[in-house]
Write a structure and sequence with these properties.
Two copies of one chain form a homodimer. Chain A is built from eight helices and two strands, in the order H-H-E-E-H-H-H-H-H-H. By secondary structure, chain A is mostly helical. Chain A has a two-stranded antiparallel sheet. In chain A, helix 1 (5-12) packs across helix 2 (16-24). The first copy, chain A, starts with a helix and ends with a helix. At the A-B interface, helix 3, helix 4, helix 5, helix 6 and helix 7 of A face helix 3, helix 4, helix 5, helix 6 and helix 7 of B. Chain A binds a DNA duplex (30 and 30 nucleotides) through helix 2.
Chain lengths: 141, 141
DNA sequence: ATGCACCCTGTAGCTGCTACAGGGTCAAGA
DNA sequence: TCTTGACCCTGTAGCAGCTACAGGGTGCAT
């Protein structure tokens, strides 16, 4: 009657192993078993897993998803908790972007200085080997 | 005479365990040992580790750093190899930024729709639970 | 009876470290 | 000489979030 794990996986764009993993870590509730010991999933499981997958695609980590699922189960609770989790994640994403943008600039600078030729006078290798750059984070602050 | 591991670590802003890890995976050449079985590092090790740390700070992975170190050891080789590695990494960084920017927008939209109140009508939770969004990547492409 | 697609459990691997446990070494001080 | 304490050693397990086996069982069709 219920969905088999492969069907659930296909319906949500998840790998079978990942579904089992979510169950093992307690993110997805245990499924009933058939007489042959196959997992048998309900539409509620489908919703649950869709929620998880969507949150994962948005970059939420497992701990956050646990909290969000908890909240989703208690409709009377204050939305502020969900807001806090999402905003915290947004800030983390913004931080990551900022760090990557700096990185991109530094890489661009490095690559832009490479005028071809042999490794012996390659600016890329030189930059990486440069002593004065090696601990700029420590020297600077 | 040479540097002890703690001294090398301090001089490069690395943890002692990390230095041992780099040696174990063959990224940093083995050090001589003292009579008491302590590792004894040379200035060449210091240069080598500084190179590694700088490349790591720029986000290069271990495999790339291995290649870059290889290149740095062969000054007669064509710089294009170094350029290829660096440019490939740059592209990966740009990809990551692009994906995170999309993520940021989606998170912003989601959070912006939250008008407070109870979880029961929280747009954040609703968005995550929304079926139509759950496999948009499949549906759309 | 046989083949095949699917399911099961358990465990190891991925990246780049980090953090122990349980010991040994070495220089300084009492 | 003994002891303290900072350092060093090896080996192994843990983090996140899966992924990929090995080695077996189930269920349906032929």
């Amino acid at each position: 009657m219920g969905l088999k794990i492969g069907e659930l996986a296909k319906a949500t764009g998840t790998k079978v192993e990942t579904v089992r993993y979510y169950e093992r870590i307690g993110l997805l509730p245990q499924a009933e078993r058939t007489s042959g010991n196959y997992r048998s999933y309900t539409p509620a499981h489908l919703d649950h897993l869709n929620f998880i997958r969507h949150a994962r695609r948005l970059g939420f980590d497992i701990a956050d998803i646990r909290s969000l699922l908890d909240l989703a189960d208690q409709p009377e609770r204050d939305c502020a908790d969900a807001d806090r989790i999402a905003s915290g994640h947004l800030r983390a994403v913004e931080d990551k972007i900022a760090r990557l943008v700096l990185l991109r600039e530094e890489l661009n600078r490095m690559i832009g200085q490479c005028r071809g030729g042999s490794v012996g006078n390659c600016r890329i290798i030189e930059t990486l080997a440069d002593h004065s750059l090696c601990r700029s984070d420590h020297a600077g602050g």
